[in-house]
């Protein structure tokens, strides 16, 4: 059986002079510089990564256009998850324009930064999510545990929408803390819905200093136990990852965490799931 390509299902690029990265305060000074394809290509090659999915880092359509221009020039950028204002009555026209580029795979509202936990369930947003689904586009859900119940409601209202939960819904595990029953119950409920998948990414930043396989294992085991490897995809969250470690360490720890999986399941997590979910071209 042909093994799927290795895919990094979640990484970012940015160019500071573009000026729309509002979250880049002094708190993230270590990564407040340009990160472009030339910076990641050697790392991807070293780890045998055949392609990546690049995810928005600014709440502007202009940044999505920038990412699509990078994909135009680098065929290993297999997919782009952009940003569109899902409350905008004219969002459909933006979906259609962006979809003219084959790398455009879906959108990601920055839900973690919106104070209204139920924003994603507003009628105008739900209407646009139906339009998103009709076009075969996906939703990346940048959520925290407070969003899990409302995300389940959204999934029930728009059952044809393919959803992936970014960063395992950012469990609160800093300093060795337990992820908590709210997170465990919420993830388990979402895993019952076959249209929802989960990204194994961002956990190093959530855990903070001292993260290792043993500290992350309870989260990883819970996610894999409920979603299965066929609905879990690996991502680096590079270069945000650099605030808590580096690509080499995250890959090494991930290999340790996934060691108990059979070969076919490891292949799914490291590429097959992302290829199926995003409809990525092979090779």
Task: Give a topology summary.
Layout: E1 7-11, H1 37-46, E2 51-55, H2 61-73, E3 77-82, H3 91-98, E4 104-107, H4 123-134, E5 138-141, H5 148-157, E6 162-165, H6 181-191, E7 196-200, H7 203-207, H8 213-227, E8 232-234, H9 247-258, H10 263-278
Parallel strand pairs: 1-2, 2-3, 3-4, 4-5, 5-6, 6-7, 7-8
Describe, in plain words, how this protein is organized in 3D:
The protein is of the alpha/beta class and 283 residues long. The chain has one domain (7-278): Metal-dependent hydrolases (TIM Barrel). Helix content is 40%, strand content 13%. The chain is built from 10 helices and 8 strands. It has an 8-stranded parallel sheet. The protein is globular and about 45 Å long. It starts with 6 loop residues before the first strand and ends in a 5-residue tail after the last helix. 45% of the residues are buried.
Biggest sheet layout: 8 strands, parallel
Secondary structure: number of strands: 8
Mean pLDDT: 96
The helix/strand order is: EHEHEHEHEHEHEHHEHH
The CATH architecture term is: Alpha-Beta Barrel
Query: Would you state the CATH class?
Result: Alpha Beta
Characterize the overall form: globular
CATH superfamily: Metal-dependent hydrolases
Tell me the strand percentage band: 5-15%
- Kindly report the CATH topology: TIM Barrel
Distance between the termini: 15 Å
**Class inferred from helices and paired strands:** alpha/beta
Radius of gyration: 17 Å
- In which range does the helix fraction lie? 25-40%
Compute the number of helices. 10
* Major β-sheet strand ordering: 1-2-3-4-5-6-7-8
């Amino acid at each position: 059986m042909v093994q799927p390509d290795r895919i990094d299902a979640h990484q970012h690029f940015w160019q500071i002079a573009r000026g729309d990265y509002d979250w880049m305060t002094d708190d993230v000074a270590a990564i407040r510089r340009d990160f472009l394809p030339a910076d990641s290509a050697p790392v991807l090659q070293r780890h045998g990564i055949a392609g990546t999915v690049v995810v928005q880092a600014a709440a502007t359509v202009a940044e999505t256009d920038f990412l699509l221009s990078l994909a135009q020039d680098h065929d290993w950028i297999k997919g782009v998850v952009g940003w569109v204002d899902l409350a905008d009555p004219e969002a459909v026209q933006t979906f259609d324009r962006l979809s003219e580029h084959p790398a455009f795979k879906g959108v990601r509202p920055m839900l973690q930064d919106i104070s209204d936990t139920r924003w994603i369930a507003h009628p105008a947003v739900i209407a646009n999510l139906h339009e998103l689904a009709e076009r075969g586009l996906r939703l990346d859900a940048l959520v925290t545990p407070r969003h899990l119940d409302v995300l389940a409601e959204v999934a029930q209202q728009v059952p044809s929408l393919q959803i992936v939960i970014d960063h395992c819904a950012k469990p609160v595990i800093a300093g060795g803390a337990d992820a908590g029953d709210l997170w465990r119950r919420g993830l388990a409920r979402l895993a019952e819905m076959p249209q929802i998948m989960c990204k194994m990414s961002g956990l190093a930043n959530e855990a903070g200093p001292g993260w290792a396989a043993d500290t992350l294992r309870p989260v990883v085991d819970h996610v894999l136990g409920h979603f299965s490897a066929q609905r879990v995809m690996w991502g680096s969250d590079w270069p945000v990852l650099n605030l808590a470690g580096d690509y080499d360490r995250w890959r090494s720890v991930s290999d340790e965490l996934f060691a108990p999986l059979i070969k076919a399941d490891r292949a799914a997590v490291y590429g097959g799931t992302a290829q199926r979910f995003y409809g990525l071209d092979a090779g």
